[in-house]
Every structure is written in structure tokens, then in C-alpha cells.
Design brief:
The structure holds two protein chains of two kinds. Chain A is mostly beta strands. Chain A is built from eleven helices and 56 strands. Chain A has a 22-stranded antiparallel β-barrel. In chain A, strand 30 and strand 31 form a beta hairpin. Classes of the chains: A mainly beta, B mainly alpha. At the A-B interface, strand 27, strand 28, strand 29, strand 33 and strand 34 of A face strand 1, helix 1, helix 4, helix 13 and helix 20 of B.
Chain lengths: ~1000, ~525
């Protein structure tokens, strides 16, 4: 029988939602919610309530024997009313003609990452996000639509309108939305700074209504997900003996010694990694306001200890404070407001760079026969204890303070005519200290004098933007939005660093110059080159009945970095859209196709990512001394011109064409976005090598470029079965990268030598016709199984190709076919750029429970793995060496072992591994305790458990296939002892009231 | 807003506003000296290469190292096919330092000299000497090099050796004419290391002998005749105030103990000076970075410090000295004769039992690196690899005597005897002066001083090839191994070295590679 059902309808934030229609399914009986969101109606237990409201997903609730049914409505993400953030403004999503992608802050928060960019991983097709290291606080490599440059590919970040180069300071919980502008037409409004794409971030703003308090936290423990399997002492001794014998020496270890070793010895991997390193986050926020004044504020603390070395050596912690408010004055004619973000970051870390600056690398190389004993000053075979090397060489503390925000006002003297002016600042302050104790671990690894270093730097950016915008309609069908703006940008800063030897104290906490004991300190200090920019820009949006869409932008940028005459760059764009489902002839498809919009865009953006004053030739005094006379240590200062000038230097240009469509099917339950693009970067700003005879460093020049072509696809489906709501989304992108027009005679930008092992030669390069940063070395073709194979390995003319090879050695391919293996046979043996990047997520909720899986991956790329230094015969091996050639037929990939490691001194595809992987980034199960607690003041009390980096599907045998590290700006995928991303298990709590 | 875009660097002067005052000109001149000091801070140093190439020594280095030094030693690129750029850093450094000289020379007339007008030609003379000094290294090593006497970014082809030598001769001649004839004793001790008239005159002798010998010419590129060359040397002998240090061993820190004659002694006509102020933190780089190549492989034994075991000494050289020659023990460390408990054979390539004593890292009685200790007293972040400070003595007075004798001085026998009397002391027995006896004496006198190889080459490529070629036994990682240097490789390359492949490639083939490389 019927009874009266009452309840309250709220939105996702818990705010009352008035006007929601409530119908009994299958009938016309119903009501709608009042201004407080309350409703009441009569229904019987078998009835199903259908709740619907524009902009929200329709919900069905079975009545059962409930008398009170409170419902939280979810915004319909596919809704055409949705507004997206665009450069210097917002736009109705339905009218947007660019290729961009917006993620809500709460979806980032759900990933429980320390960094918004990491949370974005796998959610944004065409945006490749890679860790450069698993060390806490390390930056992410973000590449929008393929690597476009040799000197940095970081997109432009704009936080609440303030331009910045890094957003790792941001607390995920403070982000309202994050938008990636991928195509040039969307980004062109940022002109010269947008060549690598633009990421727009808005932080949370206040809302009129009662104050809402949120508390978010998590606590987790992290461990290494996978260690590399190194040889134990016995295996090591056996292999070392075999190498000695293969090199004509007698075995090093007697059988008796080997037998006594067993599995003993030091597992250096185990020594380096800390167990259960803690990561935690506590964030409290309050949002609210009145009709005229809104505010949003938050305070948060986050910390993450490193899994290598633990908290003392590798750690990151951050304090965030945010206060945003906005006030309407004079009957809404004038709006003033401010956004303020303050972040204090403290971090310390171990070396995660190339072979010489990589703390973890030592663990791969050191013999397991050495004991982990800090009192051992000799090491073994001149190898030093890698754990204590890491400890002694990485005593550092870094503190950053950052204030970023703006103050703005907006007047609207007549309706739709707005003038907005904002003054933004980005102030950055750093102070750091480091301590190097006196130690001796081997004859090569020692420090005879304790040393303290103290350094400071600061920089400030001031940004003043003025925008005038006007919207008007001609007739009833022609709608225009026009905007004109100016922007002025000014950057400067300085740094100072001093070092003293000797120290009163022996720890990093006391590493201050005043505690150094020597009577002199060496100091360096520098003023950063000023960077000034002046810009003028405009945008015109036009639409005809929201069906034919047109958008044009233009920006003129002047930069102080270039000489007069080259200071100004001009960046146009145009884009158009056609919402075909608004056409009458599409009426018959409206049953299954809700909307279909075709888009096309073209635009040019630029880069001035180069140090200033390239048009001058500077005189250098730094480290320019000669000693005259017999008193050692007395220096006479000198000077010399260190660099050539290039007065012709100008903007780098990136031109991009994008064609795509957005479609919604099945009442918006199924959404498809497809984009195709060609992005051509030209007139690169590069430091192309000059002839040595020029006599000084090369200046930057314009030359060379790269073409990225690709396709992006995103599919999303959501539906409900009874109380079970579920969502599935899949995205993927394909990109092909080809370098062209490198201006050197040889058409190559050469990578650096000595990066991946001692005496390693250039192994990566950017060259015409190849993907940027490709791996360059010898191709191999198996292993010589016997002497006969060595002799019969000849050129077409019959000359023996590798006359000095022995059975078990690598067979190199004579690529040129010229009858000898020479440098000319080196070729492309790998590509660090993936062909495919992809991700998927699955989410479901059921009666207060929620569950989600998020995954991301790449395919088609290669990794260079170099854990061992062929210049040393004593280095340990990974257990892969157990599959070495040691007699005919034993291996056709892994060559024989020798003391001189000759099969490894030439960079060949022995070093190359496939880097494909699919990582389950996040698996979360939550339950909203509000169902149990049932307190009215409580909107949400969700308890959850998460596993981050739960599992990685890959054939790569290193610790982590996500290797963003590269030795040159244009390369990645170089694993010389990569700090892996931890696996984290955590519990978390989200409370709202 | 165009004013807003006009900014100025807060930390640099520029080429356009510098070179205005005599002080700035002096700083720029010191910059040229600094450029010379940095020539060999990476790559392969000229003094080290000259020994590896000669019959004095083998390549050596670590047992597991690359084979670059064997490539040099055997003139055979197949020994280390990927070593296409062994001298690239040096090639770049030479042209960088030459650029510093050329810019200064170009700007000298922009300087407002005021009352210091006399400095103008002195600075020009020093800069031109340094430029000549560098071109002489380069043209000997590579034979064919681009010649720049003013800055240029053009892709220049190589000049003929004659053009380069003519420029060297002109530069040195200018230096002899414009530097003051100030005797050694009257030079200010704080100015030691500056180029002197005597250095220029002596270098002319060396250049003359090499050019006329290697190229079979009758004078120095049409600029300096044999008579003039001899006259320059006689002037040094008569007027420079330079002389021989009494005891040969006292010339060398490791051989002399406490009796070291010190740097800038009266025998040093010109030296490239180093000191121990190199610092990893600041990047300051004033040290002798090549000395560490020469130390015993990973092994210290007072007073000899460890090094990388490059340039292992050929036993033939040890045997070439008679037992009464004091230069034998002053020049060579003999592991056996000095009872050194060297135990790093397993890590040493081409071990012979002998190491270089003239240029070796040193340790004190506590076993600490001497140079690293001194550096740490200054509070520097340094170690034995970068803090070595022993100067490279380019020209000794003994060389002036022997060159003058070779050029037919009327006092030839006397000059010859002076050098030998010091070497043999009481055991001195006069021998007649012949070309052969002079060349033999030069080998013994100047071992490891970067001279021998060029003395061989100036007797003709065939003489050099046949003298250097050898098949012998060395210990590689403790294992007896046959070592072969073939004459044909030296003849094929004419004793010239590989032009860095990177430079050939950057020039798009305008630079021509030497034969055999």
C-alpha cells in the first residue's frame, strides 16, 4: 500500500538541488523538489522513482520499505551544457572547436598521487606522462602530442591565469579542473609559449550557500614492486672464473671457495631499498559564501618517503595553503577577487642522473662478495660499498617556498561588455644545504675533508593581463563573442651558493657556512637574465544557431630575449565546427545519436625557450685564471669571449592541423572523441654544434624541426543496473615522430658520450628522417657458435668480417655491406618514443560502495638498459647472464663472459629492450559510512583502501619500465639504475559536512 | 613598450663593450694563457701522446679500458674502431685558445692605451707567441689544419703546412723583436711563466729543426734561414741568463726529493704552468689533468702516487742508458730496482716494470696525495685527479744547447759536453759530436718531455717508423701478450694523427682526413 515518501535531493557536493523532477516509473505521477531540495510524494514499495534534472544523470531508486529517500544527483559529464575552461576564459563545451580535454579535480584527487600530473597519467589521450624517476617529488615528463623540441618539451602551465613552468607544488585537492589544450588553435591564444601545449588549471572557488567543510587524507606504505635479480656470491664467483678463463687467465676462485659461498654474500638490492616507506596526506578545506562574496580556503600537508634509502636520504614533504575569494560590488557591476596559493616544499634526494650521478647504480655493479660494513675503507677490487656511498654523498636538504596567485577586478558597465584586469605573481625562493662527511670506502671513493654547502636562490614573475570582452547577437541566429587582451610578463632572480671545507658538526642539519672551519669559502652568485614579454591578442567566436561554429585567434608576442627586429612573433589560428545533429536531416538518427560535432583547426604557436642575449657574445671571467710566478695557488684572473653571437635568432614555430569529432550516443551514455593531427615544429631553437675553428661555444640558432602525426581516440560508457552504476572508459593515441631539416652538414644533433658506461660513445641522436632521440648503435645477429661460423662470416667478396672474434662473441651486422664492421654500420636500433600510449578506467558504485581501476601503458618504444660498466671486470651481473653462451648451442643472444667485456664495449642492440607495458596504476575500494552513521550534518564519510602501482604487465626485465630519464633533453628510456616507482597500499578517508 | 623589451645582462660584458682599457687587455691576455693551460684538460694531452707515439713508451692504461691508447701506439685504427674522436676535445681547445688570441689581436687597437702604449706590442707579442706555440703542436700532430689569424665562422679548408709554418715563424719573429731582452735574473719572480724573448728565440730553433727535417726544406717556410735560427739560439745562450741546473735529478720533483730545483728554475725557458686550485664544485680547472695518466696503475709507493698506468715505459729506453748516466734513475721508475711492491699487474695493460718518473703524481709520507693535501688546505673540493700542479716544461736550456750544437754552432762540442757532463758527473767521457750522437743524447736527455717522437719524425718518416716498430712481450692483466707495432702503419700515416671525425663530419668533408685514418 501507498505511503508518503519524503527526502532531500542534493548535488555531488551535498548542496540542495531544487527543481529535480521525481516521477513514479511508468506513470505520470510525480512531483519536483522545492528550493531546499526537499520533496514528498506517495508511492508503494514496488514502485521505482525516476529522478531527472537537466545537466544531471537520471537516477532510478526502488522504494522498498523506505519512507525517507535522500538522493545525491550526479552531474552528467556528457551534458552539452557543460562549460570548459579555455585560454583567458570559458566556453560552452558544445561550442568548442578545439582539441582539448578537461579533467575534474575530484578525478585527480581519487588517484591519491602526490602530483596532479601523475594522476593525469592514462586519462588524457595524446598526453604522454612519464616519471623521470621514482624519487619522491621528482618532476614528471609531460609530452603533448609527441616530442617537438630538443631543448625541453614541458607544456605551459597556467594556474588561475598565472603563467608558470611547474605545477608540482599544487595539492590535488585544491584543483577544481585541469584542462589540456592540445591543438594549436586552442593554444594559440598563448602564442609564443604554447609550442609544447598548454595545461590550464583552476583552483577551487567558493560557492554561495552554506559553508562546506571537507577533510581528505590517506596513509600508505610503499615498497619496491620488483627488484632486479643479481647474482649471488656463488653465481658471481662461477661467472668471474669463467670470464677469467675465457680471457686466458687462471680461475680466480678455487672450487673449495665456491663451495663454501653457498648463497651467501651481500644482496646490494636489499641493502639499498627501505621497507614500508610512509606516504601520507591530510587536507582540510572550507568553501562557502553569500550572494555577494564567496571564498574557498584549504590547508594541507603531504609527505612521501623514498623507497631507496628511506626517509633520511630520499624524502618529499609539502605544506599548502590556499585562499581564493571573490566579491561582487555595486550591484554586480564590479567584481574583485584573488587567488593565493602558498606552498612550502622540503625535499632531499639521492642521485638519479647519468652513470656518474646515480646512487642506485652502484648496487648493480658491486660484487656480492663485499660486505656492507661502514668501517671497511678498502672495498673489494677497488669497488666501494654502494650503500654507504649513497649515504655519504647525498646528505642534502632543500627547502622551497612558493607564492603564486593573482588579484583581479572585472567591471561590466553594460551587459555583456566586460573589462578584466589581473595582476599575477609567481615568487619562488629556495634555500638548500648539503654536507659531505669525511669518508673512505675505497681508493676511488673517499672524501678527505668534510664539506658544507649552502645555497639560495629566488625568482619572481609579475604578470599583468588586461582583457576586454563583449558578446552580442545579430538577428537571432548570429552569435558573437569577442575578446581583446594585453599581457605583460617580467621575470628576474638571482642565486648564491657557498662552500666551505671542514665542519664543526658532522650532519646535514648543521651544514651552514658559519659551521665550516676553513678560513675561506668558495662562493658563486649570479643574477638571472631578465626576461620580459609584451603581448597583444584577440579572439572572435561566432556561431550560427549553435550549429556552425567558427573561432579565430591572433596573438603578437614581443620578447626581450631576441635582438631588435626579431623581437616580435605573430601567432594566428582558426578553427571551425559543425554540429551535424542540429541539422534537420539528422532527425531520424536522434534516437541513438544524441550529438555529433565535426571539428577542424589550424594554428601556429611558438617557443622562445632559450637563454637570453644570444645576440651578444659574452665575456667570461668564471674559472679563467693563470698562475704566474712560483707561488702555487696564486691566481691571476683572465677573461675571454665564451660564445659566439647570433643576431638573427627568432621564434621557434609549431604549426598544427587537427581534425576530429565528438559524438554522444544512447542518451549520452556512450561518448566518442576522435582526433587526427599533424604537428610540425620548425626553426627549432637549437645549439647546433659549430666547427671548432669558430673558437667559442655555439649560440642558439634556428634550424631543424620535427613532424608529429597522430590519432587519438577516447571512448566512455556509463550505465546503471539497478543500484549499480558503472563507468568504463578507454583511450589511446598513436604518434609518429620524424625529424627533419637539421641544419648541420651531417644533419645530426649528437647525443653525449660517457653517459651510460665508462667510455660509452654517442648512443642517441636526433637526425633527419628518424624519430627524435633514437638509439644509434650496432645491430647484432646472434652469437658465433663455433670457429667455423666466425670464419664463414664474410662479406660478399669473401673478406672475413670479424676476424678476431671467438666463438661466443656477438655477430655484428655489416649494414653498409662494405665488407667491414665500422662506425658506418651503426644504425637505428631503438626508439624511445612510444608508438602508442593508452589507458583505461573502470568504475562502479553500489549502495555506498565504490570501486575503481585505473591503468595506463605504452607500446612500441625501447629502453636502453646499462647496469654494468664494461670497463670493470669485477662488476656484478643480473641473473640474465646465467643464460650466456658457454659452449655451442647454449645461447644465441647473451655472449660469452670475458674480463675485458669486449662484447659490451660497443653500443649495440644487446643494450636495447622493449619498453611496452600496461600498468594498473590504481585500484580503489571505498564505502561511504554515511549509510551507517546517518547524521544529517554529514554529507560524506568515505573510507577507502587503495593500491597504487599494483601490477605492471611488461616483458621489460628492469625494475620499472616507465623510464622517463634521458641523458639529453630529447631522449628518454635510459635505464642506468632507474629509481623505480613504489607500490603503495593505503587507507584513506574523505569527509564532507 | 619597446623599452620594456630592452634588457641588459646583469652578469656579462660583451665583446662589443670590452677590450677598452689596458687592464681589460691584460685580462684578455691572461685569458689566452688560460686557454693554453686548458688545452689538455681532456682528450689526449700533447705531452702524453708524444710519448705513446714514440719508442719511449707503450699505451698502457687499465686492463679493462678501451683501446684508444693502443690505437695511438700502433697507429692502427682497427685497434679501437669506435675511437674516432680521441683528439676532438683537444682540437676544439686549441681553436678556442687561438680564438682568444685572435680576438685580442684584433681588438688591440681599440684599447685606449694612454700612458701604457708600450704594453700594446708586448701583449701582441705574447698572444702571437701563444698562437704560434699552439699551431706548432697542431701542425705536427695533424699535418694539415685550418689556419685562422682572425676570428671566422667560415667552413675553412686546411692550409698547407708551409702556410702554417710561415705564420708560426712570423709570429715568433714578431715576439723576438717586441719582447724586452731581460735576463733571467732580472725578471720579476711573480712574472715567471710569461712569454719571454728567450722563449720565442728558442722555439724558433725547435720549429726550424722540425720543419726543415720533416719536410726536407732548406729554411723555415721562407721566413727564417738556418743562420738566423742559429743566431737566435746563440742569443739565448749568450744573453738570456738561463743555464743548466747543476744536478739533473733536481729538475724533477719525484727524482729530487728535497733538492728539487723548483719550478721556473734557471733552466726553464718556457713552461705551461699549472697549480692545485682545480675544484669540482666551482669547475675551476687550473691543474695538470694529464699527469694522473702517467702514475703507476692504482698503486702508490712513496714518493710516487697512483695514477691510471698510461704510457708504460719501454724497457728498451731503460736499457739505452748506461749505468753511469744519472738520467737513468732520474727519468724512470724501475719497479724491480726500487723494490716497489707493485701488485696491480692484473689491472694494468702493457705492464713492463717501468714507469715515468719525470711526470708522476706524488704522495707524502702519510700516503696522501701531495697535491690533494695542498688543495684541501685551500678548502677546495678536489682530489689527486685534478689537483696535480707540476708545470709542463716545454723548453729547457739543455735543449737550446743541443739545438745550437745541431745547427752547427762554433761552440757545438762545448754545448754538447755541457749537457753530458751534467749527466755523467765524474764519469763523463767526451765523445765526438755527430748528428747521430746528438740525436742519441737528445733521447736520453729529454725522455718523457714530449720531444722524442718529433725528433724521430724530423729524421724522416722511414727512420721514425723503423725505430718505433717493434714486436715484444708485455703483461696484459698479468698475462704475457705479444705486442706489435708495425712500421708500415707509421709510414702509411706519415706519423700524423687522426683528425677528429666529428670535425670532418661537421665540415661536410671540407676537412680532409689524413691517410691511414
Amino acid at each position: 500500500q501507498k505511503q508518503v515518501i519524503t527526502g532531500k535531493i542534493t548535488d555531488a557536493t551535498g548542496a540542495p538541488l531544487p527543481g529535480v523532477s521525481i516521477l513514479i516509473k511508468g506513470t505520470t505521477i510525480g512531483t519536483s523538489a522545492d528550493v531546499e531540495g526537499n520533496y514528498s510524494l506517495e508511492a508503494s514499495p514496488n514502485d521505482v522513482l525516476v529522478l531527472s534534472f537537466i545537466g544531471y544523470t537520471t537516477k532510478e531508486v526502488s522504494v522498498g520499505n523506505q519512507s525517507q529517500i535522500n538522493v545525491s544527483m550526479e552531474e552528467d559529464i556528457s551534458t552539452l551544457q557543460e562549460v570548459v575552461v579555455v585560454g583567458y576564459g570559458e566556453q560552452k563545451k558544445a561550442l568548442n572547436t578545439g582539441a582539448n580535454l578537461q579533467i575534474k579535480g575530484e578525478d585527480l584527487l581519487k588517484q591519491s598521487s602526490t602530483n596532479a600530473l601523475q594522476a593525469l597519467q592514462g586519462q588524457a589521450p595524446g598526453v604522454q606522462i612519464t616519471s623521470t624517476s621514482g624519487q619522491p617529488g621528482e618532476t614528471m615528463k609531460v609530452i603533448v602530442r609527441g616530442v617537438g623540441s630538443t631543448i625541453g618539451n614541458t607544456p605551459l602551465y597556467v594556474v588561475d591565469g598565472v603563467i608558470t613552468g611547474d605545477i608540482s607544488y599544487l595539492n590535488n585537492g585544491d584543483i577544481a579542473s585541469l584542462t589540456v589544450l592540445k591543438d594549436a588553435a586552442s593554444a594559440a591564444i598563448y602564442g609564443s609559449q604554447a609550442a609544447n601545449g598548454v595545461v590550464l588549471i583552476t583552483t577551487k572557488k567558493g560557492k554561495a550557500g552554506h559553508a562546506q567543510v571537507t577533510f581528505d587524507s590517506y596513509y600508505g606504505v610503499q615498497n619496491v614492486a620488483r627488484k632486479v635479480d643479481l647474482l649471488n656470491a656463488k653465481e658471481y664467483a662461477i661467472i668471474a672464473n669463467e670470464a677469467a678463463v675465457n680471457s686466458g687467465n687462471s680461475p680466480i676462485y678455487s672450487q673449495h671457495v665456491i663451495d663454501s659461498l653457498g648463497s651467501a654474500g651481500t644482496n646490494w638490492m636489499d641493502e639499498m631499498f627501505a621497507k614500508d616507506a610512509v606516504t601520507q596526506n591530510y587536507s582540510i578545506g572550507v568553501t562557502g559564501g553569500s550572494e555577494n562574496s564567496v571564498y574557498s580556503t584549504s590547508l594541507s600537508y603531504l609527505s612521501q618517503a623514498g623507497i631507496v634509502g628511506g626517509k633520511g636520504l630520499s624524502n618529499y614533504e609539502r605544506y599548502n595553503f590556499r585562499f581564493n575569494s571573490e566579491h561582487k560590488l555595486f550591484k554586480n557591476i564590479l567584481t574583485i577577487g584573488q587567488n593565493l596559493n602558498v606552498a612550502f616544499t622540503n625535499n632531499n634526494g639521492i642521485g638519479v642522473g647519468n652513470q656518474y650521478n646515480n646512487s642506485l647504480r652502484g648496487a648493480f655493479q658491486t660484487t656480492p662478495l663485499l660486505k656492507n660494513d661502514p668501517l671497511d675503507t678498502a672495498g673489494l677490487y677497488n669497488q666501494a660499498n654502494p650503500y654507504y656511498q649513497m649515504v655519504y654523498n647525498n646528505q642534502n636538504r632543500n627547502k622551497n617556498q612558493r607564492v603564486i596567485g593573482n588579484i583581479y577586478f572585472e567591471v561590466e558597465p553594460i551587459s555583456k561588455l566586460k573589462f578584466r584586469s589581473s595582476l599575477g605573481i609567481d615568487y619562488y625562493n629556495y634555500d638548500g644545504q648539503s654536507y659531505k662527511p669525511e669518508f673512505k670506502l675505497s681508493i676511488y671513493s673517499f672524501n678527505t675533508n668534510p664539506q658544507v654547502t649552502q645555497s639560495m636562490s629566488k625568482s619572481q614573475t609579475i604578470l599583468w593581463d588586461n582583457l576586454l570582452s563583449y558578446s552580442f547577437t545579430l538577428g537571432t541566429q548570429h552569435k558573437f563573442d569577442a575578446m581583446l587582451g594585453t599581457s605583460m610578463y617580467q621575470y628576474g632572480g638571482s642565486s648564491l651558493s657557498a662552500t666551505k671545507t671542514g665542519s664543526v658538526f658532522s650532519d646535514v642539519e648543521h651544514a651552514w657556512i658559519s659551521n665550516g672551519t676553513s678560513n675561506t669559502a668558495t662562493a658563486t652568485g649570479v643574477a638571472y637574465d631578465p626576461d620580459h614579454r609584451a603581448s597583444f591578442f584577440g579572439r572572435l567566436n561566432y556561431n550560427f544557431e549553435e550549429t556552425y561554429l567558427l573561432n579565430a585567434t591572433f596573438r603578437a608576442d614581443g620578447s626581450s630575449k631576441f635582438a631588435k627586429g626579431n623581437q616580435w612573433g605573430y601567432f594566428p589560428s582558426v578553427s571551425a565546427g559543425w554540429v551535424i545533429t542540429n541539422e534537420e536531416f539528422m532527425d531520424n538518427t536522434s534516437g541513438w545519436l544524441n550529438s555529433l560535432k565535426f571539428r577542424a583547426s589550424w594554428g601556429q604557436v611558438g617557443s622562445q625557450n632559450v637563454s637570453a642575449f644570444q645576440y651578444q657574445s659574452p665575456i667570461t671571467f668564471t674559472n679563467t685564471y693563470y698562475i704566474f710566478g712560483g707561488t702555487e695557488g696564486t691566481l691571476t684572473p683572465g677573461a675571454y669571449p665564451s660564445r659566439l653571437s647570433n643576431t638573427n635568432l627568432k621564434w621557434e614555430t609549431s604549426e598544427q592541423t587537427d581534425i576530429g569529432f565528438d559524438a554522444a550516443f544512447l542518451n549520452g551514455k556512450f561518448n566518442v572523441n576522435v582526433d587526427w593531427y599533424v604537428k610540425t615544429n620548425k626553426d627549432w631553437l637549437i645549439k647546433a654544434p659549430v666547427l671548432a675553428t669558430a673558437g667559442a661555444e655555439a649560440p642558439y640558432i634556428n634550424g631543424g624541426g620535427v613532424k608529429n602525426k597522430g590519432v587519438e581516440l577516447a571512448l566512455a560508457y556509463n550505465n546503471s543496473i539497478g543500484d549499480l552504476n558503472y563507468r568504463v572508459s578507454v583511450n589511446g593515441a598513436y604518434n609518429k615522430n620524424t625529424v627533419s631539416h637539421i641544419p648541420n652538414a651531417d644533419g645530426i644533433i649528437h647525443g653525449q658520450a660517457n653517459q651510460i658506461y665508462d667510455n660509452s660513445t654517442e648512443f642517441n641522436r636526433a637526425a633527419n628522417g628518424y624519430p627524435i632521440g633514437y638509439f644509434w648503435g650496432y645491430k647484432t645477429n646472434g652469437i658465433f657458435q663455433n670457429e667455423q661460423e666466425v670464419q664463414s662470416y664474410t662479406s660478399a667478396e669473401g673478406t672475413q668480417l670479424q676476424p678476431s672474434a671467438k666463438p661466443g662473441d656477438v655477430r655484428y651486422v655489416d649494414v653498409t655491406g662494405d665488407g667491414s664492421i665500422t662506425e658506418a654500420d651503426k644504425t637505428m636500433i631503438g626508439n624511445p618514443n612510444p608508438d602508442y600510449t593508452f589507458g583505461f578506467s573502470i568504475g562502479a558504485d553500489y549502495k555506498g560502495f565504490d570501486f575503481s581501476i585505473q591503468a595506463s601503458g605504452v607500446a612500441g618504444n625501447q629502453i636502453v638498459q646499462s647496469y654494468r660498466n664494461p670497463a670493470s671486470k669485477y662488476g656484478n651481473y643480473t641473473s640474465e647472464i646465467l643464460d650466456r653462451w658457454h659452449g655451442e648451442g647454449t645461447s644465441n643472444r647473451m655472449p660469452r663472459v670475458t674480463e675485458t667485456n669486449e662484447n659490451w664495449t660497443n653500443f649495440s642492440d644487446l643494450y636495447i629492450h622493449n619498453g611496452d607495458y600496461l600498468r594498473i596504476n590504481n585500484v580503489t575500494l571505498g564505502y561511504d559510512l554515511k549509510r551507517v552513521i546517518k547524521q544529517n550534518f554529514l554529507t560524506q564519510c568515505r573510507l577507502y583502501v587503495s593500491a597504487l602501482n599494483l601490477f605492471t604487465f611488461t616483458k621489460y626485465n628492469g625494475m620499472d619500465p616507465e623510464v622517463g630519464y634521458g641523458t639529453d633533453g630529447f631522449t628518454s628510456g635510459v635505464d642506468v639504475g632507474y629509481y623505480p616507482r613504489p607500490r603503495t597500499y593505503m587507507v584513506g578517508l574523505n569527509v564532507k559536512f | 613598450c619597446s623599452d620594456f623589451l630592452e634588457t641588459e645582462s646583469l652578469s656579462n660584458s660583451t665583446v662589443d663593450n670590452y677590450y677598452k682599457t689596458p687592464e681589460q687587455a691584460y685580462n684578455a691576455l691572461v685569458g689566452c694563457y688560460d686557454g693554453v693551460q686548458a688545452l689538455w684538460s681532456s682528450g689526449v694531452s700533447f705531452p702524453v701522446a708524444s710519448e705513446v707515439l714514440s719508442d719511449n713508451a707503450f699505451g698502457g692504461t687499465g686492463y679493462s679500458d678501451g683501446y684508444g691508447y693502443q690505437l695511438l701506439d700502433e697507429f692502427d685504427k682497427s685497434r679501437s674502431p669506435s675511437d674516432l674522436n680521441m683528439f676532438n676535445n683537444n682540437w676544439i681547445a686549441y681553436y678556442k685558445a687561438i680564438y682568444r688570441c685572435n680576438i685580442l689581436l684584433q681588438k688591440l687597437d681599440d684599447v685606449e692605451w694612454g700612458t701604457d702604449a708600450d704594453l700594446r706590442n708586448i701583449y701582441e707579442a705574447e698572444a702571437r707567441f701563444l698562437r704560434a706555440y699552439m699551431y706548432f703542436d697542431m701542425v705536427r700532430l695533424w699535418g694539415n689544419v685550418p689556419l685562422l689569424t682572425e676570428p671566422s665562422t667560415e667552413n675553412l679548408p686546411q692550409a698547407t703546412p708551409q702556410e702554417v709554418y710561415a705564420q708560426i715563424a712570423e709570429d715568433l719573429k714578431f715576439a723576438t723583436e717586441n719582447l724586452e731582452a731581460k735576463s733571467y735574473a732580472s725578471q720579476s719572480s711573480s712574472e715567471r711563466g710569461r712569454v719571454t724573448k728567450w722563449a720565442a728565440e728558442s722555439l724558433i730553433g725547435r720549429v726550424y729543426l722540425y720543419y726543415t727535417g720533416y719536410y726536407g726544406a732548406s729554411d723555415l717556410a721562407g721566413v727564417i734561414s738556418k743562420t738566423q735560427a742559429l743566431a737566435y739560439l746563440e742569443d739565448v745562450i749568450a744573453n738570456s741568463g738561463h743555464g743548466l741546473v747543476e744536478t739533473y735529478a733536481n729538475l724533477w720533483p719525484a727524482a729530487s726529493g728535497t733538492n728539487y730545483a723548483k719550478e721556473d728554475n734557471k733552466e726553464t725557458v718556457f713552461a705551461i704552468k699549472y697549480t692545485y686550485t682545480s675544484d669540482y664544485t666551482t669547475g675551476n680547472d687550473d691543474g695538470n689533468k694529464w699527469l694522473v695518466m702517467l702514475g703507476m696503475r692504482n698503486y702508490s709507493s712513496y714518493p710516487y702516487g697512483k695514477g691510471w698506468g698510461g704510457v708504460t715505459v719501454n724497457p728498451n729506453l731503460w736499457d739505452a742508458y748506461s749505468s753511469t748516466d744519472t738520467r737513468k734513475a732520474a727519468s724512470i721508475i724501475s719497479i724491480e730496482d726500487e723494490n716497489i711492491a707493485f701488485d696491480q699487474q692484473a689491472d694494468q695493460r702493457e705492464y713492463t716494470g717501468y714507469y715515468n718518473k719525470k711526470y708522476t703524481p706524488m704522495i707524502n709520507l702519510n700516503g696522501e696525495s701531495v697535491s690533494a693535501e695542498l688543495a684541501s688546505e685551500l678548502g677546495l673540493n678536489s682530489d689527486f685527479q685534478i689537483s696535480q700542479f707540476q708545470d709542463y716544461v716545454v723548453i729547457r736550456y739543455a735543449d737550446v744547447l743541443l739545438m745550437a750544437a745541431e745547427l752547427g754552432s762554433s761552440s757545438a762540442q762545448n754545448y754538447f759536453d755541457q749537457v753530458r757532463e751534467r749527466a755523467y758527473g765524474d764519469d763523463f767521457v767526451q765523445i765526438p759530436i755527430t748528428q747521430q750522437s746528438i740525436m742519441n743524447e737528445r733521447r736520453l736527455e729529454f725522455a718523457f718531455e714530449g720531444i722524442r717522437y718529433w725528433d724521430l719524425l724530423r729524421q724522416g718518416v722511414d727512420v721514425a717508423a723503423n725505430t718505433i716498430a717493434e714486436t715484444t712481450q708485455v703483461l696484459n692483466g698479468g698475462v704475457e701478450t705479444t705486442k706489435t707495432i708495425t712500421a708500415s702503419k707509421i709510414q702509411e700515416t706519415k706519423g700524423l694523427q687522426q683528425i677528429p671525425n666529428t670535425q670532418v663530419s661537421l665540415s661536410n668533408g671540407v676537412l680532409k682526413q689524413n691517410n691511414g685514418w
